[in-house]
Amino acid sequence: MDNRPIGVFDSGLGGLTVVRQLMRLLPSEDIVYFGDTGRVPYGNRSRETLIKYTRQDCRFLLGQNVKRIIAACGTASSVAPHVLRSLPVKAGGVVEQAADAAVRATRNGKIGVLGTQATIHSGSFQRRIGEQRPDAAVYPQACPLFVPLVESGWIGRDDEITILTARRYLEPLKAAGVDTLILGCTHFPLLAPIIGDVMGENVVLIDSGKTAAEDCARQLRQDDALNRTKKAGELHFYVSDRPENFLSVASIFLGGEVTGDIHTLDIEQVDGAEIDMVYKR
Ligand code: DGL
Prior knowledge:
This protein folds into 2 domains: 6-93 and 211-280, Rossmann fold; 96-208, Rossmann fold (3-Layer(aba) Sandwich). Helix 5 packs across helix 7 and helix 5 crosses helix 11 (208-222). The chain has helices at 16-25, 47-63, 74-79, 81-85, 95-105, 117-122, 124-132, 146-151, 160-176, 192-199, 208-222, 246-254, 267-270; strands at 6-10, 31-35, 68-71, 90-92, 110-115, 137-142, 180-183, 204-207, 235-239, 257-264, 273-280. With 281 residues, it is of the alpha/beta class. The relative contact order is 0.19. It binds D-glutamic acid. D-glutamic acid binds at residues 10-12, 14, 40-43, 73-75, 116, 119, 147, 185-187.
């Protein structure tokens, strides 16, 4: 048994899609979430900067005495996996499990990958798929505009701007005949209905946040590291800046109403603002 919290970080709010899955799978676990909302987006930054940010995010979570860290960010997972491997606690990203799930799901061997510029440029998903299934044809597509659309809450299935953007990004993959599509950025599951509409019902969408959360749950069970003292785990939420419509967007990501008090902490000590959130399922 291990009663310490699980640490989760992302560049912004997208990683809450992973938190949502963790809460579903592991309702007794405490979770500490760090959203680097002051420095989002990560997806168009340099490798050096991303390595530095990933180190800082992990250091912050380690200071919260977490038992495990999930990089709920396709970009950090893709560009800085060595940082995750170097930590004193087990840590994982969102790449491997999603790539493996796509290899299992594809029927025609044509797999699309959606991610940020940095994720696609890193070749992380392409490499992992190639290791598992060398004959697979991989079609990577950077979708940087999806991130601000999601962070703005423009995720309604009938949102014209988002639909047009999705069509522009997805048409080449559709034309190539992919039958499986990895949502390689933790913001993208929020756009799954629109992406599914554009791609058609025969294309399997792989949610990289979901596969990462499932892997974390499996590992905690395997290591006998679950928190067995609680009925309902707590969510502690830290951000490096507070966007205007923060709570409403956070509620969308978590799939339930979120209310909370916001405490601004000494930036020298914590480097951010703490939000104590109450999450109602
Ligand atoms: N959540 C980040 C990811 O999964 C994308 C957003 C960003 O560019 O910061 O890559």
